[in-house]
Amino acid sequence: MAxxxxxxRKQSAIIRIRGARQHNLKGLDxxxxxxxxxxxxxxxxxxxxxxxxxxxxxxxxxxxxxxxxPYVRQFFDRMDKPDVEEIEGILPAIAIEQKNxxxxxxxxxxxxxxxxxxxxxxxxxxxxxxxxxxxxxxKPDSPESALAWLLEERQGQQIMxxxxxxxxxxxxxxxxxxxxxxxxxxxxxxxxTVYRTDEPEQCPHHNLPAQLWIVQDRLxxxxxxxxxxxxxxxxxxxxxxxxFAVCDTTAAAETMRQFSNDWVNPGTGFxxxxxxxxxxxxxxxxxxxxxxxxxGRVIGIDLAKAVPDPSLTIRQGAVKPFQxxxxxxxxxxxxxxxxxxxxxxxxxxxxxxxDEREWINYGEGGDPDEAWRDGRWNGIKGFFxxxxxxxxxxxxxxxxSRYRSYTECPVCRGKRLRPEALCFRVKGKSLPEIxxxxxxxLAGWFASFETKDNSLxxxxxxxxxxxxxxxxxxxxxxxxxxxxRTLSGGEMERVNLTTCLGASLTNTLFVLDEPxxxxxxxxxxxxxxxxxxxxxxxxxxxxxxxxxxxxxxADDIIDLGPAAGENxxxxxxxxxxxxxxxxxxxxxxLDGRKSIPIPAQRRDxxxxxxxxxxxxxxxxxxxxxxxxxxxxxxxxxxxxxxxxxxxHDVLYANLAKTLGQDPGEEREAAPLQSLKGSSWxxxxxxxxxxxxxxxxxxxxxxxCGAFDVIRQLLCETDxxxxxxxxxxxxxxxxxQGRCDRCAGAGYEHVEMQFLSDxxxxxxxxSGRRYRPSALEFTLLDLSIADWLELTVSSAIQRLxxxxxxxxxxxxxxxxxxxxxxxxxxxVGLGYLRLGQPLNTLSGGESQRLKLSSLLGDSxxxxxxxxxxxxxxxLHVSDVAVLLxxxxxxxxAGNSVLVIEHHLDVIAAADWVIDLGxxxxxxxxxxxxxxxxxxxxxxxxxxxxxxxEKLHGKKKTKHASKTAEATPQSNMIALHGxxxxxxxxxxxxxxxxxxxVVSGLxxxxxxxxxxxxxxxxxxxxxxxxxxxxxxxxxDQLEKPELDHLAGLPPTVAIEQRxxxxxxxxxxxxxxxxxxxxxxxxxxxxxxxCCGQAVQKQSLSAMxxxxxxxxxxxxxxxxxxxxxxxxxxxTEVATWAVQHGYETLLVDRQIMDANEFRPLERFKEHxxxxxxxxxxxxxxxxxxxxxxxxRIGKGTVRVLAAKNKFHVLSSSQSCAQCGTSYEDLDPRHxxxxxxxxxxxxxxxxxxxxxxxxxxxVSRFDSLLAAEVDEERSMxxxxxxxxxxxxxxxxxxxxxxxxxxxxxDTEIGMLARLPITQASTHFSRLDFSESRQQLxxxxxxxxxxxxxxxxxxVGLGYLQLDRSARTLSGGESQRxxxxxxxxxxxxGVLYVLDEPxIGLHPRDNAxxxxxxxxxRDRGNSxxxxxxDEDTIAAADCLIDLGxxAGRxxxxxxxxxxxxxxxKKKHSAAEIAASPTLRAMSMEMKHPRPxxxxxxxxxxxxxxxxxxxxxxxxxxxVDVPIACLTxxxxxxxxxxxxxxxxxxxxxxxxxxxxxxxxxxxxxKGFDAIESVYxxxxxxxxxxxxxxxxxxxxxxxxxxxxxxxxxxxxxxxYDASRFSFNTEGGRCxxxxxxxxxxxxxxxxxxxxxxxxxCQGKRYNSATLExxxxxxxxxxxxxxxxxxxxxxxxxHSKLAEPLRLLNETGLGYLTLGQASPTLSGGEAxxxxxxxxIARGRSLRKRMAQLKMSKGNLYLIEEPxxxxxLxxxxxxxxxxxxxxxxxxxxxxxxxxMAVAAEADWIIDIxxxxxxxxxxxxxxxxxxxxxxxKHSRTAAFLRKELEGHQxx
Length: 1840
Fold this sequence. Notes:
Blueprint: H1 2-11, E1 14-20, E2 28-33, E3 37-41, H2 48-65, H3 70-73, E4 84-88, E5 93-96, H4 109-112, H5 115-126, E6 128-130, E7 137-138, H6 143-153, E8 158-166, H7 173-182, E9 187-190, E10 193-196, E11 211-220, H8 226-239, E12 243-248, E13 257-260, E14 263-264, E15 271-272, E16 297-301, H9 328-341, H10 354-362, H11 368-373, H12 379-388, H13 394-401, E17 404-408, E18 424-425, H14 431-435, H15 439-447, H16 454-472, H17 489-503, E19 509-513, H18 521-536, E20 540-544, H19 548-552, E21 556-561, E22 570-575, H20 587-590, E23 609-617, E24 620-628, E25 632-637, H21 643-658, E26 674-676, E27 683-687, H22 700-704, H23 706-715, H24 718-723, E28 747-750, E29 758-761, E30 778-779, E31 782-783, H25 784-789, H26 792-803, H27 808-826, H28 843-856, E32 863-868, H29 876-891, E33 895-899, H30 903-908, E34 911-916, E35 925-930, H31 932-936, H32 941-950, H33 959-962, E36 971-977, E37 985-990, E38 994-999, H34 1005-1022, H35 1027-1030, E39 1043-1045, E40 1050-1053, H36 1066-1069, H37 1072-1083, E41 1087-1088, E42 1091-1092, H38 1098-1109, ...
Parallel strand pairs: 3-20, 3-21, 5-19, 19-20, 25-33, 25-34, 27-32, 32-33, 38-54, 38-55, 40-53, 53-54, 59-65, 59-66, 61-64, 64-65
Antiparallel strand pairs: 1-2, 1-4, 6-7, 6-18, 8-11, 8-12, 9-10, 9-11, 12-13, 14-15, 16-17, 21-22, 23-24, 23-26, 28-29, 30-31, 34-35, 36-37, 36-39, 41-42, 43-46, 43-47, 44-45, 44-46, 47-48, 49-50, 51-52, 55-56, 57-58, 57-60, 62-63, 66-67
């Protein structure tokens, strides 16, 4: 079997693509191997990106993102579903593109690469603290360090050892000393004198200080008494809670030395906070500078603006604000003070030292005003501070505004961290200093760092490896504090590549877009090594690339072509890079059979020179360079050497200013000493890769001007002349011939909530942009739409025929069009369609299109053209074409300067300027200049590779190409996990297997599976998404661990207690309803008066307006925005620009000019007012037509009495005339007033006693609605009835009547899942528009319904309330919702998926999980179920105990077969799971069934009919253990909670509304207690101790202590919920909420109480050396031992411990408890209540038993804990109580005295009693689904 699975996995280890037709792909069929580096190449426009990004990446990302909630999905960068027949074996995909969308200044290179995350951990462990004033090291003291100090400083002296205590207010020695004496403390040190506590009358002081020193001991400091000294110091530290002191026996103040475990300098009192990871993060509220919130900048005076020209000296006036009348005095003061300080005032500002510039900027420190009065220099900043005090004057404010901008934060000086963090250093460097080091230097610094701490060494290695990755991809010049938004596209791509490598993800598809862009040849080989390392970690790489070295290093080449556009999209070649038999495509270029020739002759350098002197910016330092004009010049050099700075900021910006051109606001000219030779130039052009347009309205034909000529040609045809047409008629942007519906766009934008928006072809023009009447006019048998579909090359061919014709005008126009289009063909863009939107072009295509416009210009010569890497995205064949164009431009008299790394371009240049020698601070110099041959001899980095190109030598192929990839361990490797209770564990978890994590409850299973594996796997994948999207994903905290590698993207399927609100249904929680709403909104048809709603004519709408005018004035509004989130400022801007002054915003009328940004994450409605009428004027019809056009067919009329009427050209009832808005998904939402039934507000039910929403009691409508929902949730089912208005379908009447395929949506919601699945599978749409919209929606619905059916939930109705679902149903719904994504290579983490499942359904679920594994996924399942453990490939058992006794791996290996002892005695003894599964459990555990020992009385219920129960009769034996069994959904909970519980509460009295006909025997029951799995508290103020009621008793214990009584404390003092004893900073929460700008709010431990909840005075009261906070921190097991002598506490604590909850702490917040934990706490609480009541009744001799109703108490219990639970249940019965349990665990069922088996199936097929009796009797049933499993248990099967 194992071999078959392995074989099946190997066969599926490919991505299988069939029928790919995205964009120009022509039905491609191909396979891409997993775990390989595949390069996709081919000519530009051949379809590479369509295959790699729009097909592979789009599908891989879409499937993984679908595992998130619909709320989160809407924020991700969703891509369209690709046009492909089939994709199998797809992996979760990450795209690494040449794009930089980051705009926030919070993101830096350090945060992006996660190096900052490791650095903050590194600093928290490795740094030393220093006093910023004295420079002394600060570290916490310990008894050991205090002992070392004493032996060194006080050797041989007599000392007193002291600790301090807090003294109650107004206490006197007579009050307080006896208390100290009783506790054994005999002496105190008070005001320099020692007094005895047993002689308080000897103390002359009446009042005591707040802190009093207690003399712990008197000692002699001798080396031989180390042990004695250490014990005394430890005792003093314990009593003083970490603080203690020593002084000599004279008690002289100068001899006292204080010690503290806090970070305090005892000499100065300066205190640091303890170093933690958060302290070293500027994105954490604990570490961010409080002034700038971690941004490093604030709006203020920018001192850099004060020195605009750094080449000037101080004497020459470098400080600009000092050069006017206002600053004259300051200039004189500056000159005088500089001379006094010895600063040369004739030295240029840029040549002054850093310290000198710092002094001039900030002065001599202290108060600037005081410095000025004393004649000292107060700094440029002091001058501006003085001016700020005069800012009430207008002219001063104007002056200051010139120097104001975002500037360095004055508190942190741009370092971003709070001052305390800057006091910590590692090897003399603070963290900001490390951030500021170049990556290359920093990598060396960490390589030389030595540490003996293994954990710290792992962190150091991780930092060093990530830094080295950056060095390897040519980014050694970057610094970690470089803002991400300043990176180029190529830099961003390579940074992301190293981030992915550092994240150690595996089983991921990485799609890279030309990673070599901007990379020097020196760095390409190292980049290839990085990609190979990423591949060797088990990932698949698909790289779009043209670089020769990358292709030679690939495992596989996919060559698309043979040409571009229509002539591309086919597979030319797939295979290795070396194939001599391949004669076409890219391969001949790789092996040298084809090449770009080197020019035989270079142009002469006798041309004039452009001479630059002293250029300074970024890393350029006073660079002098001569650039020959009239030549083809190439700027080369390694990445970061300063090429772009020289070309853009020095050359272009300065030349543009000199020539009177605008260089652009974003580009500031670099300072330089001189620029000569500009007179030889007419203009300078920067031809970059920025987009040409942001809308689809501009096309290549429009851009080059050819479209105007083609329209003129059409107007010259006979038919057009007869019609009198002008060229404007054929414009799709404004002409009368364009399609009215789409306004000439050719498509309609359809917003698809929960899916990617789609562009639907306009149904009126079929995507052709024009009206049919316009298409009747043709030129060469082609309509205007046909011409736009032609490629540039095809259009030129057609126009040639016209140009050679007889008609002179037509020939002239045709030739003009050819001349305009020909430059596009010359730059290799002949494949573009004339009508292709420019916003779809790549950066390289945009750059070449700009270049083509230069070729077509009539003026020639005298221009300098600057191009930045024009070969980006170009195939080598296209590079050859580009070079021809560039040479032609030079031949025409222009100068061309190209920044380029492509060796073919460098070799073709006339002149090369090489920058370097390195990047960053190592660059910025001209290392060579001359012809390519001269530069090749220079010895620079470029020279080495240029020599090989010039002399025809082929570079050595990358070593990794021929070598086999290093085999990687197929393991998830975790090291040093210390999260929660894990004890520094290290483990390797096999991938592609089913791994079960088991262990006792609280042993750390969920911590390992969810808090580490899931949290990290999801976080690392999400880091590839946008920062904006990530903030909406519910990401877990980063776990505490050293290293985690080999982790695939993860999906969690957890237990969730919440089943949604009162409005949640099966359809909503499975997300099916979202897609049904979307489908009906886009394709549904409204019905009114029994007829389909039809379009309303314009004349009919005009008559309606006239009728409304009879009642008063009206206003016409056109809807613009409907239910869309955002600021929507652009809507107001549009309205003002088009002359509309009034808007209707969320039902409020406002002036468009006064519009303010709306709430971003709230849905808004916006209408624009078109006109207002008081009578029917002549313009009524025109304004109505205008409103319809703007409102896209809908007009809203505000008529008399402020009532709105809707008129619609598409939605109007022919019979009653009612108009409707266009359908929207909101119209079918129960949670929106646009869709919900007004009678029940979407609940489907109403209270029997009808109530109406009372808004008057609340601040807002939302608050009233929240209160209403809470009230509904509190109501029992018998208090509610179906809504009479909507009959329970929840929707408003007009929404419920909408039909699709003759099915109303209201009726559809009533269908069971199986019928709904059949309904949607039969839907068939004939229209292409309907097919396109339904294409993505129907599969989403069908897939979810099918999977729900597979897991046995087909019987559930779509509108079934989520509140009525059983635990098993809820769990499987969640599983079904997550597992439909069809992904491969994912790690699924599941939390006890068998919970609530019948053993029969367990087997089906297990088959599903195994099929998921065999598809190529990894599964980690937290589970206690024996069958699941036995079926696993690997078992990891945690223990040996729970809580603090757990957190260790006690066994890892093959799981045991049930009942078979294949493991050693030592393994079984160490592992709770092995032990439990190896032990035999005999049934019943009591000697005999109670029902057999005696004939018990019965609780009789007749005619039970709740939910699906079919009038069943049931007997429950009194004082016995009864177990309800049956498959999930069979009716067990309906009987327990719907019949048995109400009957017991009513004492057996039958009520009219009861769910049973008759009840008998209930007079034997005293009380009924229901124990379910709902939460026991929703805030951190609730905990196990408060719920069970023992906390009140604990507080009483503390209040009775002598210390508490002496202080006047009562029990309320020890409550963390009331004032007095609690910490007031956190209000007893133990943590505080910190708000951060642009970051989520964060909860951090309270710094005052350190998370202990109480103030220090309360914590000083100790019971058996433990404070109240210490007791709350105890585990239940510890507390049971601690309070074993206290009867009122011992019993409930013992019960909690026996039910498997010993690992919980008494103060653990209730929201953190699982459902099973909450249930067992409730069980103990109810048992305690029941026993208390029984005792009272026994005293009155009225004792009766209680009835306990418990639902699945084994949830979350380990096999060993199940045994203990069974004992508790038996003890309850032995005390005379009746216990009824719903349970699927056969060990519990086998222990029952009586079993009632309900079924036989679920839903309508259940609801009958299949069998009832003893377990042995039920096991014999032939109809019971439980019998076979019960029989197996009773036959002596071995269990845990």
